[in-house]
Amino acid sequence: MKLNLRIWRQKNADTPGAMATYEVDGISSDMSFLEMLDTLNEDLILRGEEPVAFDHDCREGICGACSLVINGDAHGPERTTTCQLHMRSFRDGDTIDVEPWRASAFPVVKDLVVDRSAFDRIIQAGGYISAPTGSAPDAHATPVPKPDADSAFEHAECIGCGACVAACPNGSAMLFTSAKVNHLNVLPQGAPERETRVLDMVAAMDDEGFGGCTLTGECATACPKGIPLPSIAAMNKEWLRATRKVRR
Amino acid sequence: MDYLDHTTGAPLADTKAPAGPVEQRWDRRRFEAKLVNPANRRKHTVIVVGTGLAGGAAGATLAEQGYHVEQFCYQDSPRRAHSIAAQGGINAAKNYRNDGDSVHRLFYDTVKGGDFRARESNVHRLAEISVEIIDQCVAQGVPFAREYGGLLDTRSFGGVQVSRTFYARGQTGQQLLLGAYQALSRQIAAGTVTMHPRTEMLDLIVVDGRARGIVARDLITGGISTYFADAVVLATGGYGNVFYLSTNAMNSNATAVWRAHRRGAWFANPCFTQIHPTCIPRTGDHQSKLTLMSESLRNDGRIWVPKARGDARPPNEIPDDERDYYLERIYPSFGNLVPRDIASRAAKNVCDEGRGVGPGGQGVYLDFADAIRRMGREKVEEKYGNLFEMYERITAENPYEIPMRIYPAVHYTMGGLWVDYDLQTTIPGLFAIGEANFSDHGANRLGASALMQGLADGYFVLPSTINDYLARGTFDAVGAGHPAVAEAVAEVEDRLNLLLAVGGDRTPDSFHREIGELMWEFGGMARTDEGLRKALDRIPQIREEFWRRIKVPGTGEEFNQSLEKANRVVDYLELAELMCLDALHRTESCGGHFREESRTPDGEAARKDDEFAYAAAWEFTGTGAPPVLHKEDLVFEYVHPTQRSYA
Amino acid sequence: MALGTRTEEKKPSRTDRQPSVIRLFWRSTVGKKAVMAVSGLIMLGYLVAHMMGNLKIFFGADEFNAYGHWLRTMGEPVLHYSWALWLVRVVLLLAVVGHGVAAYQLSRRDIAARPDKYVHRKRRPSYATRTMRWGGIILALFIVWHLLDLTTLTVNENARPGHPYENVVATFSTWYGNVVYIVAMLAVGLHIRHGFWSAAQTLGMGNATRDRVLKTAADGLALLLTAGFLSVPVAVMTGVVS
To answer: What pLDDT score does B157 carry?
Structure first.
């Protein structure tokens, strides 16, 4: 396959960027999207140009590092991570636009790489269960009903890639935050910190400059792990409940 | 002197494990270890490099104990360490199934599975702690699979006959890692852990014979900084990426351990690498990494190849009597569940015979037709749905209808920095945990044991043993002007500058690929004296060519992924040499190390216990200079070595 | 590790400071959305009552005018003349202001959170956000016109105080009166369609199983209100009401 790529190039956070056009040839439909970019980068290095910087690591859809907006869609046309997108989803001669995640809470570091540390700070605000090492009771001391365990797992699948924020017209992190809140709040182990967790995480999310939720649903459509939109409603419910509980 | 002229130095012994009955040693060690007064702990700083299961757990736990932790990872977030990709599960001797499991059985299975090349004291401790890990993770909110009664579900995994593997669908590593990450996040918020993401350790600072800090590069600004501490913990994972194509993450690398090795930490058993039997075969030269399919697939899938060579018919058109279910044929009692090394080698053998399937004949079928007939498609989907989906996404073939194609790939490295019972390397104050050390798996790791070892080291072992080291020493502040510091910084800077200055005509990736292909051919699943010598001949040539022809664009003062990559390849080019030498000197076959010359009459791996019942710890003497071999004799008091038999 | 040796201290929680409920809500995007949801539902309830009142126009001038009068006398003799109506007006005013200010602040925040647009624009428009924002502005302007037209009668040329039926007919006898009203009612429908469902989500009432019911209810409400409100100008234009 032969493709025209238009890729966002930006030297660093302080320099304005622009789209640049490249042509790649000899692309196999079995390649992953990132392998296609590897091919481009090998060419660029040999031509004495700077390769395109992009985040990637596990390349099996689980680490959450890869983060490209392809033709306007976070992670591209398929519901998966960029690293698991294959070139068979494109046709010979296509023009493909590649851009970084866009949100003021995710400033561009270089080219297609953005800073997602805001997500870490949301987790630090309360996305955990305080269980210091050594303090745990036997694992079977508290049975967890299977539906609750399954629901916790489904929310815990979030890989923290940020596609939800990138896809949201408001740059909102509600889906990400709700995934962690729901994962922990549905479990009996998470109950003691249930109220402070949701209040603190939502406050941290707001402090990071993410937008609010207008329930457009773009986040859930883009989510490679299928975190569902009703997660947000569930978190809202937890938040409202917490405001009553904390106030007594 | 030639690299092959390695010398044998003084033998090495672990002096930290107490004598006495194996089941009392860990208790005794914890009692004998000195403690640091809780009020004094915050005066101690510990550096932890890596945020995977071992590093994340260690950082969180040390901070909970009151130490100040400086933690590093090259990823943009500690949540992305490659432990996250582990699929299958984690072993624990809980015996919730009442199926005859016990700490002793897990200990026994692990020593035997490791082909009698692991230290009994360590393995027993691992089995003891396995039980606590599950408790800890459940308390943190790790959503393990549960049954309708609300209790934890377990499954049988990777060549053992009890059901002791706890799992969270096919994403156990992810869930355990997020548990550790969350515990770490809690400490970061509390200010007890200072997290340095996108910061890569490039050298170790050794002052007066003790590890006192690291030199690290900020991957965004390119700034080189030094960080000081009273102890340094390496939790930087394995070195499987030497092979270029592996199931490791693209940026997983061996730089931290190799730099530590160059500074005096001995490297043990580098040739013990694990080839995982069930990976998705490569599709072409563009392949950048390989994707593993959980071994749990072998519980229900049947592995076969056509009986006839070069049979090009689609799999569904090959009648049953023309198929060779070779694992079931050769190993009737274990069948498709034989340990990883055996399954991998058998796949290689049938492909070498010309009976492999798929592009290039580098694959075998893993067929679920029988399982679907037996359990129904729905049940199969429930058990393996996400794996099937992943397979279809990568190959565009539907495994419910067409058998999967699988082929072995480099997956895990049992070798690593030599550590004693306290997980301390040969440099005082430098500890290595998780896959970065060599300690618990011997020559072969059992399925679902990597997560167990990483968390055991991180949550329970290191936080206990490091106290002893910190309590016994006095730690004066190290000044940035100390000659050892200046030298380490200068060395790092010189190397990066040199990489940028060469301005040759080959990319870092092309060298990585070349060394990887060489290692796969001569140091992969089957090794020969002749092949290893060829590799050892070739590696210095590649190294020489590297420094002549490498091309790294950009500068060092910016985000520069090519520079990161090139700098890692430099270390692969040295580590590969040691791996080959270790493989050459060990003329036996054991676990993941298979020497064609050492086989039983029926072609199976033949161990030589009288000659090689030791861990080989290598001392660095200079790039390309012959290293010194130190042998740690392994004594088996409880599990008596037998030739493994899975027939 | 004995618990007694732990030296970590509890980190002060963001919520330990116990801010007032109002501050807690107003400071948070989730809280502010809840304010919008509740005020929106209040206005929705009012609209339902309003529409039912409007339909009385089909029963003739007397009944409609009597209804208009009753609005001022309801609550008597407990309440003084038109107090109840003023009570309703105050609640509505609070709802409108709360809804509007929250919407304005949240929109400002949303736009700031996403300053750079993608170069590759997708064809799929963000329907909900766009209609809610523009629809909200249209509705705010309409409310002003509507009050000037039929409450204060400032812009209604042929208006006579105390004769609501005639005033309504007068409004819908002008082309611009009809256009303004019809556009506004379509905006109401669209606003309710997303707003009702959205409010349910914001108040935590949505879940996967209830989602269809909520969406159907939102569609039904939107359709009913739009049709009910539009029936009046249509009736005037076609001469059914004159």
So the answer is: 81
Homologous superfamily assigned to A3-110: Beta-grasp domain (3.10.20.30)
Strand partners, B268: B416, B617
What architecture does CATH give domain B276-410? Alpha-Beta Complex (3.90)
- Whether residue C120 and residue A168 make contact (CB cut-off 8 A), yes or no, is no
User: Looking at the domain that runs over B483-625, which CATH code has it been given?
Assistant: 1.20.58.100
Q: What is the per-residue pLDDT for C129?
A: 67
Q: Which of B340, B345, B543, B595 is catalytic?
A: B340
* Structural domain spans, chain A: 3-110, 117-247
Any idea how long chain A is?
A: 248
* Residue C22 within any structural domain of the chain: no
User: 3-class SS at B139?
Assistant: helix
Residue A187 has pLDDT above 70, yes or no: yes
Whether C14 shows a pLDDT value over 60: the answer reads no
Structure tokens at B132: 């606590």
Mean pLDDT of chain B: 95
Q: How confident is the model at residue C1 (pLDDT cuts 50, 70, 90)?
A: very low
pLDDT digit string (tens) for B196-212? 999 999 999 999 999 99
Q: Examine residue C14 and state whether it is found in any structural domain, yes or no.
A: no
pLDDT above 90 covers a percentage of chain C that reads: 72
Residue C3 pLDDT > 80: no
Q: Do B64 and C8 touch (CB under 8 A)?
A: yes
Which residues from chain A sit within 8 angstroms of residue B288, using beta carbons?
32, 34-35, 38, 59
Q: CB distance from C7 to chain B under 8 Å?
A: yes
Instruction: Assign domain A117-247 to its CATH architecture.
Output: Orthogonal Bundle (1.10)
Please answer yes or no on whether A59 and B250 come within 8 Å at the CB atom: yes
Does the CB of C22 have a partner CB in chain A at under 8 Å?
A: no
Q: Select the residue of C1, C5, C8 nearest B192 (Cβ to Cβ).
A: C8
Evaluate whether residue C159 is within a structural domain: yes
Q: Which domain holds residue C216?
A: 28-112+127-237
The ipTM, to two decimals, is 0.98
With beta carbons less than 8 A apart as the criterion, state whether B478 and B228 touch: yes
* SS3 state of residue C153: coil
In the structure, what pLDDT confidence band is assigned to residue A166 with cuts at 50, 70 and 90? very high
Q: Which residues are within 8 A (CB) of C192 and not within 5 positions of it... i.e. 6 or more apart? A: C44, C47, C218, C221, C222, C225
Task: Determine the pLDDT at residue B372.
Answer: 96
Q: Which of B38, B42, B63 sits opposite C5 (nearest CB)?
A: B38
Contacts of A228 in chain C (CB under 8 A): 208
Q: For residues A81 and A66, is the Cβ–Cβ distance under 8 A? A: yes
A107 touches chain C (CB under 8 A): no
pLDDT tens string A35-58: 999 999 999 999 999 999 999 999
Check which CATH number belongs to the domain holding C141 and give it: 1.20.1300.10
First to last CA, chain C: 87
Distance of alpha carbon B491 from alpha carbon B64, whole angstroms: 35
pLDDT of residue B159: 66
pLDDT less than 70: residues of chain B: 1, 158-159, 647
- Which residues of C fall within a CB distance of 8 Å from B65? 1, 5-7
- Check CB contact under 8 Å for A104 and C115: yes
Residue B340 is a catalytic residue: yes
- Tens of pLDDT along C42-69? 999 999 999 999 999 999 999 999 999 9
Cβ–Cβ of C14/A171 closer than 8 Å? no
Residues β-bridged to residue B48: B71, B233
Cβ-contact B231, B428 below 8 angstroms: no
Bridge pairing between strands B614-619 and B267-268: antiparallel
Cβ pair A84, B280 in contact under 8 A: no
For the cut 50, the answer to whether the pLDDT of residue C6 exceeds it is no
Q: Which candidate in B69, B87, B138 is best for mutational testing of the A interface (most A CBs within 10 A)? A: B138
